[in-house]
Sequence to fold (906 residues):
Amino acid sequence: MKKKMKQTGEIIKKICQADDFTLKIYRTKNHFTRFAQNAITQHIDGENVEIQLDVAFDNKTGSASVNQYDDENLTMLVEKTESIAKLNKADPEFVASEGKHNLRQPDDPPQPTVNLKAAEMVDDIRKCINNAQKKEAQVSGISERYITENYMLTRNGFEGYDQEAHFAHSMTMRKGNVETKVSSSINDHASFSMDNMIQQLNSQFDSLQEPQKIDKGKIPVIMRPQAVIEWVSYLIWMYQLREADEGINPYTNQIGKQFFGKNFTLRSSVNNPLIHAPLFNRHGIPTTNIDWIVKGIINNMQTDRYYAQKKGVKPCSVFNIDIEGGKTSEQEMMKQVDHGIILNNLWYIRPIDAKKGEWTGLTRDGVLYFEKGKVRNAVVNLRWNEILHDATKRIISLGESLPIRYNALVPTMLIDGFNFVDVTTF
Amino acid sequence: MDILELAVGKAHSLGADYADIRIQNNQTEFVFLRNLSLKNTSHNELYGYGIRVFKNGAWGFAHSNIFSEEAVLKTVQRAFYLAEQSGRLQYGKGLKLATERSYIDTYRTPCIIDPFSIPLAEKVELMIEVNKTLLNYQGIKQAMFLLECTKIDKQFASTLGTRLEINAVYTEPTFRATAVIPEDSQSRSFREGGVAAGWEYIQNLNLIEKAEKVAEEAIMKVKADSLGDERRRTLVLDPIHMSLTMHESVGHPTELDRVLGWEADFAGRSFATTDKLGNFQYGSAAVNFLADNTLEGGLATMGYDDDGVPSQKWYLIKKGILQEYGTTRDVAPLIGLEMSRGCSRATHYFDFPINRIPNLYLEPGKKELTPNDLIADCEDAIYIEGQGSFSIDQLRLNFQFGGDMFWEIKNGKKVRPLKKIIYKSNNPEFWNSVDAICDRRFFKTFGVTNCGKGQPGQRGRMTHGGSTARFRNIRVGGSQ
Fold:
C-alpha cells in the first residue's frame, strides 16, 4: 500500500498547479467485534482511506478530501481544492508546508496484531462470556483491531510514511448494582492475555459488594491509571500556548514556573518501547522527546506552526502520554492517609471554567472506601468539581507507570482532598 | 451494474435470513474562521457502502469504498461470514427482527437553496463580517465561526424488497466571542445547532445583529459576578439550553438498546427500565415529550431509518408518565414489541446502524404564557440561555449543567447578568419540578450534530426543542 500511496503522491505532484500543497493519505483496516449481555451484537470489518489535499495560491488556501483512489477522483480532488483556494480570502496566518525532514524508520507493525482473525476474537470473547456466566453476571464490551498507514507529501519536500497496528479490548461486567470495567490497548496481540484481563476484572468485581452511601467533601483518592488517563487527556486538550497568551486558559505567563505539583511530570516520548510514537504529526513535524511538565514546572505547551513561527518556538503537539510514576503500591498508599476512596475510572468530564481550569466529572466502574490501610466497602458514585492542575499539587505518592493504552504510560496516583460535590444514587 | 440488486441477491443466495445494503455519500463543507484567519476551508467526501447480513439471529457487517462487482460480492461474503461468527455467541436463542413491510420510496429534505450552490466567497465574506463585528468590541480577544453544510445521499435496499433513495441536507452556523479581562475569560455563542434546510435558513438569521448581541453579552458576562454556595432556587430555561438537558436526561435514557444494557461498556445503561413503562412519573403532569422523526427541519427527519422503517411520531412521556422508547428492529422484539419505531441510524457508510435518539421535544404549554410571564412569577430565580458545561452519570440519573448566559431574577425581574452558574439535579426530580411551559409561539429547536455513542464511536444527529420552561426548587450555585 505504501507504493500506491507514493504513486498517488506522484500524480498529485504532477497535476497540482498550486504554489504549495500538502497531501495526506490515511488508510485504516479495522475490525470490531462488539458484545453485550453475553452475546455478540455487532461485528464490523472493512477498509477506509482518506485522501486529503491542502493547497495554497500565495496565502489563499483550500482543502478537500475524498476516499477514492482512481484518477478521475484524484483529478477532481485537485480541481476542487484549487478552486476553493482561488475563491477564498487570503489567510493572514498562512504558513508554507513543511520541507524535507530526516525521519526515523517506521517499525513494522506487529504481525500477530495484523494477522488476527475474526474467529480468534470470537474465541477470546467466548472466554469473557463463560467467565460472566460462571458469576451469573452479564458482560458487555468490544474487541478491536486497528491497522493504520499514514503518508504525507508536500510541495516543499516533506515525504513521510508511517504505520502502526494495535489491539484493544474492553469489557464491563455487571450483576445487580455491581458493575466494573477493565480495558487495555496494546501494539502486539502476542503479549495480550485474556486470562489476565479476566483475572483483573474478577478481582475488581469481587471487591465490589452492594455500594454504601458516602458523604460528599474533600476526600483523599487513589486513582488507578484508567481514571488518571481520563482527566489528563482533557487537561491536554486545553494545554495550548496561544490560548495561554490570549488569557483564555489558566496557563497565562506560566512557562518556566511551578504551576503543577512537584510530583507531576508529563512527557511525550519517542524512545520508550512501552508506548507507540508516530514518526510525524499531522503537520509534518517529526516527533521528538518533549518535556511538557517536569516536576510541576511548565516547559512546553502545544503550539501550532503559525503561532510557533510568530513566537520563535518549535511547533509541537502531544503525540503520546508518558507520566512519570513512582514505587508506591496501592497497599502502601492506603496507609499514607487515614481514609479515602479508590477510583477505577472517571466519566463524562467537561470544563466548567476554562480560565480557572475547573472541570467536572463522575466516578465510574466501582468505587472502594478504605480506612486505616484496609478496604472497607464499596461506595456509590460521586460527582467531582476540581481544578485539575491544583489537584496535582496534592499528589502524595505515585505507583509504577503502566501502559494503560498503546500510546499512554500512566501511574496510579494518591491525591489528597479531591473535591467531591455530590453523591449519586447508585 | 445494479449494486443494490447484486448485493441483496448474493446475500439471499448465501442463505441470509435478512440483508441490506446502504450506499451512502456524505459530503461536508467546513469553513472555520478564527479571528480573521481561515483555519479550514474544505470539502470532504466519504462514499462507499455497508452491507448487513442477519443469519441465525446474529449480525455481520462489512463495508467498502470499491464499487466493482468483485468488491461488492466479496463484501457480502465477508458480512455473511461475520454473521456466522457472531452466531457462535448469539443473543439467547438468537435475535429476532421486528415485523416490517417493504417500501419503494424517496425522501428529500425540503430545501429552497442548496447550500453547496452558494459560492464559497459569499460564505466567507459573511463569516468575516460576523467575526469583524465581534472583534470590533473592545475586550473580545477571540472570535470563532464554524460553518458546516452537509449533504447525505443514500440508497438502501433490503431482502424485504425495500428500495429507498434519500437525499438529506443540513446547515449549521456556530460562532463564539471570548472576552478576556486580567482575571478571567468568558465566552458567549450563537449556537442553534444544525437545521435540515438550505441556505435560506442562514439568510433569515440576521447574523450581524446576533453577533452584536453575542459580543455585548460576552463582555457583560466576563465582568459579572457569580453566585455563592448552591441553594435551592427556581430555574427558567430557554429552549436552546433545555434541548441539551432533554437530550441527556430524556433522549438517552429512552433508547431501548441502553435500557437493555447493550451500551453498558461505554455510553452506559438507563435508569428508565422496562418495569417503569406506563407507571413511572418521569415528570410533572405538564411534561409531554414527543418523539417525532417527521419534524420539519429535524435532523433525524429522513423519511426512513437505516432499517428501512418509516419515520414516526409518538409520545415517550405523556402527562409526565414514561410511555415508550426509541427502538430499532433488533431490540424492539426483546420487550415484546411487534414493530420498530424507526430509530436505527448510522453516521457514515462504514458505520453499523445503532439505536439513536429520535427528534425529541417538550410539547409547548396549552395556556398562553410568555417567558416574561414565567419570570414575573419568580421571587428568586436564575434564567439560563444557551448551552455550557454538561455532565451526567452512566444511568442518566444524576447530572450537572452550566449554560451560556445567566441572569439573576429577583421579585419577578431580570436584575443582573451572572457567570459560572451550575445546577445539579436528577431524574425524576428535575422534570417533576416543571410548573410552567410557555406556549407554542415560543417553541424553538436545536439540532444536535455531535451525539457521541457506540463502539466504535459515531456522531449522531437529531433535533430537540421546546418552549421556555420553569423548574422550581433546583440546586443552583456558582462554581469554585
